[in-house]
């Protein structure tokens, strides 16, 4: 059996498993609450691995290792920021958000929670939030699809565009059919597979190096190995506080990610939520550490040196070399390559589902057709999944698009628009509707201007300063929320009473 055939068999088996899960889940999905939250019945393990698998995406196994491979260990500050953000999200946000969404009229989506939290009868927050989600998740989903295209292209030599089509089709099938339950079940499988691959492959590759790590790095073009391995150097130059803070700021995005926050809302009970937090934090710590290790070991192990956008395929090339060349176990290599595919799919499916919920539940049901029956909303949800997938496919069409760049922009937009408002909604009772609206708009618009509008001599503000938009956008949004809330009418007493009732909430 040839190497390519063995890997192909592994891929086909994996993809068929995902589709079977979608078919099984479809039989258990009879309502919009089932489709969007799995009936709030997730156990601790599924919730934890689903949340983190949907978070990390192909970025974890392609974008981050690729950056470290090319520029050195200094790129790991992003991982540090993400770990701190994960811990804060599970310890401080998860429990209170789950409680508040139940008290706030059993909110099923983040925009719906904002509407119910502020008693927004005109549905202003609902509409604005839904538009923000669709805009930035289009870019985010595109990054996942681009990762899949690069994976298939590198492994099988398939044209990037054909590869993009295959990956999109499979994700679309099981998300379309099974909704949230299918997404979370597949995410559990995918999260487990990711963890095994990310642990074993770099360890095996390290033990196959010719000589020690330093010698191997030097042989592969790293003249200053101490600088390459230093957390305080970026491609040989000293890291400035501005650069370190920009990378740490990635952690701020967690409290504004709808596809992660929705997992907190869906957990069966607070006992399971507590279990989830421990599992999730351990999973993230291990995954981020070893993603960085992949970049470093890959630079020492892979010959010839990868260049330009090919650096983001370092883990793919490492798996191929370990299992197809050194160990001649191509089927096992194919399974680990499926781990990368798993990372990609676990994010794309969640993003498709969040977009579907924003359009069908928040816009169609809550704004356009309040009397729409549940089966109609479910139908609109599935149509939306299809439309969003097609649009993301178009955005990802360029084979030279950077996974890291696409993720960075989307993460900043969602984190700046929603993160400060989630924090204020949960912990500051004086926040009011005008402050909430102003916070979302200021955060989202700032990121678009900072990342996309050339203002400084034909450069975008980001290109001119190197400051990550989330670092500024998050705090601008937070300040705007506070100022506007204090300058406008205080929330009515019923809103304040509801806020206070969250701390005394008891499970049924």
Describe the structure.
The mean pLDDT is 83. The chain is mainly α and 508 residues long. The chain is built from 20 helices and two strands. A two-stranded antiparallel ribbon has the order 1-2. The protein starts with a helix and ends in a 7-residue tail after the last helix. A hairpin with a 2-residue loop joins strand 1 and strand 2.
Q: Determine and state the CATH class.
A: Mainly Alpha
Order of secondary-structure elements: HHHHHHHHHEEHHHHHHHHHHH
Profile the largest sheet. 2 strands, antiparallel
Indicate the CATH architecture: Up-down Bundle
The count of strands amounts to 2
What is the total number of structural domains?
A: 1
> What level of helicity do the residues show?
over 70%
Low-confidence regions: none
Approximate shape: globular
The CATH topology: Sodium/glucose cotransporter
Number of helices: 20
Helix/sheet category: mainly alpha
Q: CATH H level: which superfamily?
A: Sodium/glucose cotransporter
Radius of gyration: 22 Å
Beta-strand level of the residues, as a percent range?
Answer: under 5%
Strand order of the largest sheet: 1-2
Distance between the termini: 57 Å
Throw out a few tags for this protein:
globular; Sodium/glucose cotransporter; mainly alpha; 2 strands; two-stranded antiparallel sheet; 508 residues
Please sum up the structure shown.
The chain is an all-alpha fold and about 500 residues long. The protein has helices at about 5-25, 30-35, 45-70, 75-105, 110-115, 125-155, 160-205, 215-220, 225-230, 240-250, 260-265, 270-300, 315-325, 330-370, 375-395, 405-425, 435-450, 460-465, 470-485, 495-500, and strands at about 235, 235-240.
């Amino acid at each position: 059996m040839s190497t390519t055939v063995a890997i192909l068999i592994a891929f086909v088996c994996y993809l068929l498993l995902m589709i079977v899960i979608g078919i099984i889940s479809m039989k258990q999905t009879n309502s919009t609450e089932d489709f969007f939250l799995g009936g709030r019945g997730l156990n601790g393990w599924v919730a934890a691995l689903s949340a983190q698998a949907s978070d990390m995406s192909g970025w974890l196994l392609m974008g981050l290792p690729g950056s470290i491979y090319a520029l050195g260990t200094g790129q790991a500050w992003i991982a540090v920021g993400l770990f701190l953000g994960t811990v804060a999200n599970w310890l401080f946000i998860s429990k209170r958000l789950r409680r508040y969404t139940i008290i706030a009229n059993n909110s099923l989506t983040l925009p719906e929670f904002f509407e119910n939290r502020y008693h927004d009868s005109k549905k202003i927050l609902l509409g604005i939030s839904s538009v923000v989600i669709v805009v930035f998740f289009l870019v985010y989903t595109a990054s996942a699809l681009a990762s899949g295209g690069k994976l298939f292209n590198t492994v099988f030599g398939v044209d990037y565009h054909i590869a993009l089509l295959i990956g999109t089709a499979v994700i679309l099938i099981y998300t379309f059919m099974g909704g949230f339950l299918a997404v979370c079940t597949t995410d559990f499988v995918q999260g487990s597979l990711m963890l095994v691959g990310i642990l074993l492959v770099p360890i095996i590759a390290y033990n196959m190096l010719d000589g020690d790590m330093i010698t191997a790095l030097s042989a592969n073009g790293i003249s200053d190995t101490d600088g390459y391995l230093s957390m305080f150097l970026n491609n040989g130059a000293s890291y400035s506080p501005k650069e370190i803070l920009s990378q740490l700021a990635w952690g701020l995005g967690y409290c504004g990610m709808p596809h992660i926050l929705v997992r907190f809302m869906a957990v069966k009970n607070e006992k399971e939520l507590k279990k989830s937090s421990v599992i999730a934090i351990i999973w993230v710590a291990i995954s981020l550490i070893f993603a960085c290790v992949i970049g470093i070991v890959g630079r020492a192990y892979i010959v010839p040196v990868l260049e330009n956008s090919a650096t983001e395929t370092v883990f793919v090339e490492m798996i191929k070399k370990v299992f197809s060349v050194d160990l001649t176990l191509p089927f096992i290599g194919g399974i680990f390559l499926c781990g990368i595919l798993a990372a990609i799919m676990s994010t794309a499916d969640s993003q498709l589902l969040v977009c579907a919920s924003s359009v069908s539940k928040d816009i169609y049901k809550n704004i356009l057709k309040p009397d729409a029956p549940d089966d109609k909303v479910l139908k609109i949800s599935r149509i939306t999944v299809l439309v969003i997938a097609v649009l993301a496919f178009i955005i990802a069409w360029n084979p030279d698009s950077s996974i890291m760049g696409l993720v960075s922009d989307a993460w900043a937009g969602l984190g700046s628009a929603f993160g400060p408002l989630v924090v204020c909604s949960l912990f500051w009772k004086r926040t009011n509707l005008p402050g909430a609206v102003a916070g979302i708009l200021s955060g989202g618009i700032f990121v678009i201007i900072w990342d996309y509008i050339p203002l400084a001599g034909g450069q975008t503000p980001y290109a001119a300063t190197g400051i990550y938009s989330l670092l500024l956008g998050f705090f601008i949004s937070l300040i705007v929320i506070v100022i506007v809330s204090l300058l406008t009418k205080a929330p009515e007493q019923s809103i304040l009473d509801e806020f206070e009732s969250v701390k005394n909430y008891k499970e049924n």
